[in-house]
DNA sequence: GCTTGCCGAAACTGTCGGTTCCGTCAAGTG
DNA sequence: CACTTGACGGAACCGACAGTTTCGGCAAGC
């Protein structure tokens, strides 16, 4: 092996040829999300996405390895609105506002969650991607709660994981089973019940 | 319309011809449940079920309208072990034993729940059947909790629906997302946390 | 023996996820 | 300018699957 391979492990060739059209990416993700939100949203095919995006299926598979990957990226794209954690007031109000913001954001992309779940139940790759997404989301809430414990607003023996299971469990339960909306009222009620019981 | 039609709205013809073989029904439901529990359980086909049961696909579709119906019936068959509610002790112990029994029963048919969920996300008929099943299960717990309110063991303003959402939400969350087992320890911990916080 | 109806075998339809081939066109290089 | 690289559309194609249909045989009752 020549030494310059080690010096340049990935060939930094400056890229020639036609460039990727960014409009294609946007159109595919947008069409996927829109179709999922429409009627028959739970049975959206790649052909339908390609047709709605005005793109050939061949192009989609050039940039995404599977249908699940498209749905996951569409979800990540729409859900990364940063639901920033204020952490200004007390733990009770912080958690409350976090849940309100989360439920509101999730509710707007609920069809994407359902579609990705349907895919995750058939494709282990999609399942893994979804689990990573969920875990990342969970990390934000965990930080909030551990901070609450450190501040003495929650007793140190509080089972934070159980609390998060109750929160996200209820969220998915509404999304997948009952199909009832994740209202602000529900978020407030849940947050108050959990914090009051633990403190 | 002759009056005897109203008298006998459905012809009560005594059934002639060859009778249904009950072994077929059992074999199909058993094969469906077993295949779901095996590797690749989330992508079980009707052909595979028919082959494993030693039965032709034609026969399956004679008795069940769809794949979702087969899975639903297999689940109902295996889950109707009556998880009887003792209601002997206090509410706290009753709920605790109810959750322990429920988690144990559900854990043993977890693959069926996942398979049915996958089907419910594509077939609205299957989704409706699953919702009915879930609602029936929920009714048992609701009776237990309302009885607790009547006995003064829970304050009357307790939001029982929210409490049940937290319980079944957590259950489905573990089943579908995290894939972590529903242990007896978890059931006890959840029951105590919920009852203690409400009382 | 005759009808009714259960059952298996197998071919078939339509749909879907994913792949492959071909032709075209855009962007950079000499 | 010609030439190479690589993005893109169109369309055919493959294998798997849910669900249907056809045929032929077999068991239960009349």
TrEMBL record, chains A, B:
Residues 1-22 are annotated as: Disordered. Pfam families: TetR_C_11, TetR_N. Residues 45-64 bind DNA. The keyword Ribonucleoprotein does not apply. Keywords: DNA-binding, Transcription, Transcription regulation. GO terms for molecular function: DNA-binding transcription factor activity; transcription cis-regulatory region binding. Residues 22-82 form the HTH tetR-type domain. This is DNA-binding transcriptional regulator, AcrR family.
């Amino acid at each position: 092996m020549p030494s310059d391979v080690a010096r340049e492990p990935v060939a930094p060739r400056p890229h020639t040829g036609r460039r990727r059209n960014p409009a294609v990416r946007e159109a595919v993700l947008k069409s996927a999300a829109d179709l999922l939100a429409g009627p028959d949203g739970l049975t959206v095919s790649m052909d339908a996405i390609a047709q709605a995006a005005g793109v050939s299926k061949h192009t989609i598979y050039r940039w995404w390895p599977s249908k699940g990957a498209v749905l996951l990226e569409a979800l990540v794209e729409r859900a990364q609105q940063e639901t920033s954690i204020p952490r200004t007031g007390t733990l009770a109000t912080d958690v409350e506002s976090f849940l309100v913001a989360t439920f509101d954001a999730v509710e707007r992309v609920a069809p994407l969650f359902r579609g990705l779940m349907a895919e995750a139940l058939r494709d282990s790759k999609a399942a893994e991607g979804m689990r990573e997404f969920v875990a990342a989301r969970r990390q934000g809430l965990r930080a909030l709660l551990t901070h609450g414990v450190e501040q003495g607003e929650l007793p140190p023996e509080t089972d934070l994981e159980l609390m998060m299971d109750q929160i996200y469990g209820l969220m998915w339960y509404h999304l997948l089973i009952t199909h009832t909306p994740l209202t602000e009222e529900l978020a407030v009620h849940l947050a108050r019940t959990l914090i009051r019981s633990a403190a």
